[in-house]
Amino acid sequence: MSFIQSYNNALSNPDSLHEFINSNFDKIYDNYSLSNHENISKNREEFSRLALRINTIRALDFNAKKNEAYVNLVLNTSVRLGDLFVFQQFYRLLVEKNLNQSNLIKASALFMLSRSSHDFINAYDAMLNLLEETYKNDTDSNKEPIAILVYFYALFVKYFVEFARENVLILKEKIKTSYNSKTYAFLNDKFIEDIFAVDLDYKTDSYTNIQNLLDRFLERHEIPSSYITGFLLEQNTDYALKLNGNNLNISEIQELNKRLYMPIQSNEIFYSLGRGTAILASEKQLLAYMYAHGKKHIAKLKDAFKIINTADFKKVKLIDWGCGQGIASKMFIDTFGASVVNSVTLIEPSECALKRASLHVSNDVENIKTINKGFDELEVSDLKEESIPNVVNVHLFSNVIDMDFFNLSSLINKIEQSFTGIQYIILSSPYIDVAKTERINLFVSKLILNKGMVLLEETKTKGAWINGWSKVIRVFKIEL
Questions:
Q1: Would you say 153 and 175 are in contact if contact means Cβ atoms under 8 Å apart?
Q2: Angle formed by the axes of helices 250-261 and 283-305, to 10°?
Q3: Which residues lie closer than 8 Å to 202 by C-beta, 6 or more apart?
Q4: Which residues touch 394 (CB under 8 Å, ≥6 apart)?
Q5: Beta carbons of 172 and 150 less than 8 angstroms apart
Q6: CA neighbours within 13 Å on the CB side: how many for 17?
Q7: Which residue from 57, 62, 126 is spatially nearest to 100, judged by alpha carbons?
Q8: DSSP category for residue 278
Q9: pTM (2 decimals)?
Q10: What pLDDT does 275 receive?
Q11: Which residues pair with 454 in a beta bridge?
């Protein structure tokens, strides 16, 4: 039976739906969040029928966080599809059950509950303020607030470009004015110019063209396999020469990056980071990322490492997933000593970030392996190696699992097929929303079935931790 068939069957009553959500949350998440516009539109009719199942969904126990996360996923998807009826039904449920409303949901409600072009345009300013608040306080990326703005614009184009084109042009001009004013930080992205360039002739299906552009912006398109094979290491650059012979710790590296970035800092460089979620492609971005986000990484990892007792193992192999510039690996080495580390495997889709990560740990560890791939492109053969007696694998996931750019079940399968023996898994991320946190919890719960034990679990929303930052920390031990 297909996933969709099983899903439809589960919607017949609250108990079966609860069980389905609990057992298949990863598939639901991936189906709604990772599918591009073309694929998710194929099931538009089935999705619309969710509104007819609202009484079944209303009867769910919303003390179970996965059920609350499910409602959020449906609401987000209804915005993507422009399905006003599903949004209205599920938003009413959210209010009725007094469930948490993120600023993204509040912003979406301003137009998804609109009834006329006048209502749409009147919602614009309040929506923009909520999206700016989201960017500053609720998310590590400008992509989500930009996506809501683009869904708003695309829906307006879809409904009114043929019969009220002058209103569409008014709205387009309002967005242009907001973009050019530089008032809203989340809008400081040249992707907006791509949206402006879309032809608004209704005969050209402007709506689909905008959605396709958004898929590429959100990396929901097929990624070309242009990765570099073999060992990668940054060498003979000005930055590498500054590190040669200077075994700096991670805090000193962060300070070095700050000094190098300050003379060249600009909004254009900073906003190109996508609040730390973009795949970095330049030296300036590397410096800006370490300057802007390094301290947050270090602080979360410091809290995560406090539970680790190296007396539990003689030697470790570090596997740094989505390593960026190697902050987590370098932090581990600084905390526990280079003598504990037998080898480091660095996995990262950005070539320049991977080379720098390799550089950052090269003064401490000789045995370094680099894998220039995204998680979905990884093969078991990339990861699987002969186990070494008395060497324990320690997996580092720093600001990675919360991101929507890979299939979670596939990643879990690769871990289970590639490694044997005792595995320590250290995960740290910002708190974004209930759905992303449940994705993290699902990652833990699925792996913990392998003779597992949770060592540390901490969650702090924005404002509840140091400097107003947020954190989701999970440290656990399994045996494969």
A1: yes
A2: 150
A3: 161, 162, 165
A4: 316, 317, 318, 319, 332, 423, 424, 425, 426
A5: no
A6: 21
A7: 62
A8: S
A9: 0.82
A10: 43
A11: 476
